[in-house]
Design goal:
Chain lengths: 410, 410
DNA sequence: CACAGTTGATTGCAGGTCGCAAGCAAAACT
DNA sequence: AGTTTTGCTTGCGACCTGCAATCAACTGTG
């Protein structure tokens, strides 16, 4: 049967509980056995017994005593800080980045490397794998490699489709190539917006108790990812989240994707720059010229330049329409706007919120937070890390074990 | 901690496995202990031992021997056919229906009752509860009541919002009222499109192995529901699926919901009828008049009436745009179109598919089936039944226990 | 027609995990 | 210094599962 639920053997229960314990440890960061016991509902004794082999195997370690309480000090636990690592690769259009994390999630090292514009995929792959080789040599024990890929990314087949900006990758199967080069290391792949969303959820949404979080990645492209109860919605082929190719205008301009009036045509960086460049000469009171680039627009917007304001606010309105559509369709309680456009700041956010408020029913609007991402350079890389960690140590492949309430038997 | 996963005690494991077994029995319908053993991965002995108390408690029964095989005949099991029942109420704008199901999912009785147009909610509630009282009296053991409600339905608060067609319900809290009238019977509520989607998934999508199914309820309103791995996506407030209030035209007409260019303004039954009525006098070669009703349009469309064809096909195009947006956003592998518009038949479907094919990337289009619902009168009621059954017997509240793979301990 | 062969259901047994409760450890308070 | 408090650990009993043997019921065959 297709979707039959597996029963749980007496042996499986131990693994199940071990995963629950590790997930709790990951959720809470550094914490004591007692805290894990409370969080999981398991007996303290059970936690003690489960932790022991994890310490033996060098997955978890004791990181010191906690002072302050009344009685005995509790011993804080954490994932090991050294000895086991996860490498992450982020592929972008013009560059790639490689980062090393320990199991705790500390970013140990990150480097960005340019991709030669005329270089072949094969050449780039060679550069990537040389760096990975070196890292693996240094770190000794690498438990997994996480890869974040841009654009419409067929996760199911692990192929990138429609990567118009970098046609050289077309036909080069990065993930299988990595797998065959590192047969002993699990290689996991994700779409970069999904990775960023996972990070955003872990470091922000989770604390807010968001059940459904929509992450909107707005910049060069318009992507999105939906996080439901801590799980990224991937879609049947892993292609979910192509918000940019959602139409807000049935009779609009034809897009390369086949659709008409795609959100991306209104709001992508290219669209924004084109509009600004076209009007630069005709508008008075602007510092922007007909060859303005994005960082100039960011600055101009911050300086309340007239042209920048008008065009960025136009983008805000369209983006808000896309967000409204999502809100009505999937009913999130948190919307986070990330990627380059997060740089436009609070004023930009307020524009979006104003438009969303105007187009969404009050009882829905009141229940959804809309925020800017506090993103950093490593948001996507960290998402790739979280993906690998979840699949390696917490829960079953791409799906954590969910809460199962212990109950008295009937 | 908010979302900590619960560990599983030695007692809990029995409950967990019992739910897995019941879920398997429900999935496969009538089947033997052996088949359940294979489906769940549990030992035959464990299945035997788990089934025994279920038979004692009158939840499962043996329904006869299966002949045909080589060796001993297997004994088929099924949920009991009598003795325990689930009542379902479907609330519509002008009527309500009440149905009785046995645990096996057989529809024992269903009745529809009109709602007086000028009647108060209180009056209607009185009628509803009188009928429920009678049913409960007859059936003796009622394990749950499932309620399916139309329109934007705040599941979290169990309130209907924006029920413009039937303002009398505004401010009347149906579900709490039912709960307090039947304190011993669990009352569960759902949005009707979600209920229909669940039925569609159980009776069709599951067999196709669909991982992400989009159900589009097109008729008086345009609703939708997303089923991911057999679970309905409800959204933070349970409001997910308002596809009808998704915009396909940023600068379009203002909708009552606050948004502009809502899909519903283009495609709802009201919109379709209005367009047809307006043009009825001016178009030659049509049998439709300026007071045509929906069933006349259905007939005219089937008879290839010119006006009906034009307008229905226009609707198809807009609906296709909405579906394309969904496909790009959530990447389903199955789209099912239900409710009244399913009555337009294959020709209508082909129109939609043509438009979707034109607007979606080929590698995505090729991976998604678009079909009409084979719906019947009881689709929604049955969905309410499935909802109650799942929450009562299979899995934890609103989330079935997922596959947990037994593994050798490390 | 009896007997081997096959397959499903049941039962006895051994292994293993968990919770409870008692015991141990290490701090603060008095 | 002794008591109290709190967290970690260990001993014990209960319980569930899997394995394997057994029972049950049917088919096929010489």
């Amino acid at each position: 049967m297709k979707l039959a639920q597996k029963g749980l053997s007496i042996e499986g229960i131990q693994g199940h509980n071990r995963r629950a314990i590790l997930a709790a440890l990951h959720d809470m960061g550094e914490c004591s056995r007692k805290e894990i016991s409370v969080a999981t509902g398991l007996d303290q004794a059970t936690v003690t017994r489960a932790i022991a082999p994890l310490i033996d195997n060098g997955i978890v370690e004791e990181v010191g005593l906690v002072r302050g309480g009344r009685g005995r000090r509790s011993i804080n636990l954490a994932f090991v800080g050294s000895g086991r690592y996860i490498l992450c690769l982020r592929l972008q259009r013009r560059s790639f980045s490689i980062a090393a994390f320990n199991l705790r999630g500390d970013l140990l090292e990150t480097n960005e490397f340019p991709i030669a514009r005329d270089g072949s995929a094969k050449q780039t792959f060679k550069e990537i794998s040389e760096i990975l080789d070196r890292q693996i040599g240094n770190l000794k024990q690498v438990d997994g490699i996480g890869v974040a890929v841009p654009g419409p990314f067929l996760e199911r087949d692990e192929r990138v489709i429609l990567m118009t900006e970098s046609p050289q990758w077309q036909g080069f199967d990065l993930i299988p190539e990595l797998r065959s080069r590192y047969p002993d290391i699990p290689v996991h792949s994700t779409h970069d917006a999904k990775a960023a969303a996972l990070t955003e959820w872990r470091h922000h949404g989770r604390a807010l108790g968001a059940k459904v979080m929509l992450y909107v990645s707005a910049g060069q492209g318009i992507g999105s990812a939906l996080v439901v109860d801590g799980h990224v919605h991937r879609g049947a082929q892993g292609l979910a989240g192509e918000l940019g190719h959602t139409s807000i205008s049935v009779d609009g301009e034809q897009c390369k994707c086949g659709n008409r009036g795609c959100l991306e045509l209104f709001t992508s960086r290219i669209a924004l720059l084109r509009a600004i460049r076209e009007r630069a000469g005709d508008v008075s009171g602007t510092t922007l010229t007909s060859d303005a680039n994005f960082s100039q627009v960011l600055d101009a917007y911050a300086a309340e330049d007239r042209l920048a304001s008008e065009e960025v606010h136009r983008v805000a309105r369209y983006l808000a329409q896309g967000i409204t559509n999502c809100i009505n369709f999937v009913n999130p309680d948190l919307v986070v706007i990330g990627d380059e456009y997060a740089g436009f700041g609070q004023n930009f956010l307020e524009q979006i919120k104003t438009h969303v408020r105007a187009t969404v029913l009050p009882s829905i609007y009141d229940a959804v937070d809309i925020e800017l991402s506090q993103q950093s350079e490593d948001t996507v890389l960290r998402g790739a890390f979280l993906d690998v960690l979840a699949q390696t140590y917490l829960g079953s492949p791409r799906a954590e074990p969910e809460a199962v309430v212990a109950e008295a038997s009937g």
